[in-house]
Amino acid sequence: MKPSIEQIGNLLALKRDERPEEGYWGDFLCEFHHRQRAKVVAKSGFSAMASQFSEWLGTLGSSKWAYGAGIAYAALTIGFILAPRDVVLENPSSSPVNYQVVPAPSPPVGQLNQLDLSPSTQGDVGEQIF
Amino acid sequence: MVDLQNLRPKELVWYLVIWFAFGISSVSAHPITVVPCWQVTFPAAAGGKAAESIAVPVEGQAMLVAIVANGADASRPRLLLGNQPVATKVLGHDPVSRLEFLLIDDASQHSPLPWLREAGKYANASLTAQTSAGPVSCRSTGWIKQVGGKVLPLALLRVSFDRPVPPPGTPLLTNEGSVVGILFQEAGAGNTAYAIPAEAVHRVQQDISKGGALVRGWLGLSLRADVRAPQVVRVLPDSPAAAAGTLPGDVLTSIGNRKITEYADAANAFFYLIPGSPVRVKLLRGSQPLEFTLTPTRAAGK
Amino acid sequence: MFLPFTLLYMLCVGCILRPLLTPYSESMFRQPRPPDPDQDLITRAQQGDTRAFDALILKYGDKLYGLVYNMTSHKEDTHDLLQEVFARAYQSLGRFRGSSTFYTWIYQIAVNLTLNFLKKRKRRTTLSLNDLESSVQQDPALIDSTHEANPERRTNLNELQIKLNEAMKKLSDPHRMVVTLFDIQGMSHADIAKVLSTSEGTIRSRLHYAHLQLQSALQDSWEERF
Fold it and tell me: CATH classification of B120-211, choosing from 2.40.10.10, 3.30.420.10, 2.60.120.1440, 3.40.630.30?
């Protein structure tokens, strides 16, 4: 004889209480944090950006159609705008950035006498007379 | 508004139809407007690097202000309006703020926007950067007084953008179209930049238009840069600070209308001292609040 | 460039015109959503509180473990997939805007990753049902907490569960998924529809088909006693 759908449901519902073994989640969290730290270290670089981008694409779901349509529309409009006309677009070339500026959390130790933010610049230490 | 996560094909088609219909009509109705752009190029100094900046007209005279980046030669600017070269003369350059003021002959080309007296109210506000490609929205997110463990000689505004940062010298405007400051350089962390506030431009312009160089005010007191508290270490003899009665150990709490909570605030406030202009200084001696009036003298040139 | 203003303008016009052009039943006046019970933890995690995210992992961990294990029948794969699910969720947390509850969202991530994994696994190996079966039988990962006092009944129940596991594995991935979510996880049709981004009707028909399959598969093992 066949079990009824309800009986199958009840049998399956017994599986609801299945759990991993004791202590599993403690180790899981350790490993999770370890992976996150490793990711932060590996985050720089183009390949990391590329993999992040492809992961993001994977999470899009149905909204990828909206993004795709939006990009296609933007491309069309840009093509329409850039078609030869009398109006000239002015575009100054931007000056290249010479150096990275990274704010430090530690208390200040030097006084800059000029607005020179390159990391190699040493400020005056000690007593400053104003 | 638009719920992209739950968007269905039918709704998407509606949006696209409407967008296309209005898109074509609005694009054809609005021609692209061109904003005239003052640009200045500085050649490389010895062992340095050439730099470019946007130049912004300032109020008062036929003058423009620009940023001279480190390593560039401030004495030989090449000025362009749009793509046309314009003759210019260097009125003065201040190495502390890196601001340079340029004179142009034809006053009719000079149409300055109004400048705010000071940026304070707009330190955390929505602003618009006026670039040659049109207005770009951005947001000021507070004052930066030190970078990389080094205290700046004057506090800068931090500004964040949704897109790459416009070039140095780009003016930042309030919604009413007044200049709050000009971009100094990229901060190097995700589309943020530092900007020199309007009050610093005014301070430097004041001295350069009179004598060609910034003259700092000098009080004759010292603080330690590596101590966070703004505490007077030494009072030099025969100085304005000594004359007013300041003593070592006094903790500064305000200079003029600037509140001082740490050393970096004091360093910034000292930038704005004007020789001969008295300034009210409040401080704490032990637990006793005191108030003095100090008149800075001219600082010796560095 | 005028482009951003143009797009913004059209978006606004589109949103204003849309309710006028579509039937009332499809208008934008949806039911106000009840607040997400996890909102406090989500906000704290978005602000960088790692302990808040840990709390979310512990809250949903067991259920997601059950989901993934019942789909993959492989302990190591389940562990790796769960690490990936939570890593993905942590990475995307900044973009989580609350258009669904966290519960639905994290299930969506788990379901999508699991189904993709199973597709890849099918292509990669020819794991026989026997390989998977044996790992289930000896697997200490699952603790059977049925606590049956009657030893004979427990033996019969275990046999039945083994047969049920076999039958589950014979279902296609999408069918096994709906059975796992409905019968094992106890999710409602509406929630399953949200997680799988289909209609409730599709869910019901998939469930019906899957139940019929399981019914036939258990036909010979079923005893009068039950």
Answer: 2.40.10.10
Q: Does C88 touch chain A (CB under 8 A)?
A: yes
Please name the residue of chain A whose CA is at the shortest distance from the CA of residue C53: A29
Tell me which CATH code domain B217-298 carries. Answer: 2.30.42.10
**What pLDDT band is residue C141 in, cutting at 50, 70 and 90?**
very low
The widest CA-to-CA distance across chain A, in whole angstroms, is 98
What sign does the dihedral B71-B75-B80-B85 (CA atoms) show?
A: negative
Contact partners of B by the rule of 3+ C-beta pairs under 8 A?
A: A, C
pLDDT digits (tens, 9 = 90+) for B180-221: 999 999 887 678 899 999 999 999 999 998 888 999 999 999
Give the pLDDT band of residue C32 (cuts 50, 70, 90). low
Q: Strands B150-161, A110-111: parallel, antiparallel or unpaired by DSSP?
A: parallel
Helical (H) or strand (E) element with C213: helix C200-217
**From the CA atom positions of chain C, what is the Rg in Å?**
22
Total-model pTM: 0.48
The pLDDT > 70 percentage for chain A reads: 73
CATH architecture of the domain with range B38-109: Beta Barrel (2.40)
Residue numbers in C near B134 (CB within 8 A): 1-2
User: Choosing among B19, B28, B132, which should be mutated to test the C contact, i.e. which has the most C CBs within 10 A?
Assistant: B19
Q: Contact at 8 Å (CB) between B93 and B68?
A: yes
Residue B59 tokens read as: 């109020």
- Integer Cα distance of B47 and C57 in angstroms: 56
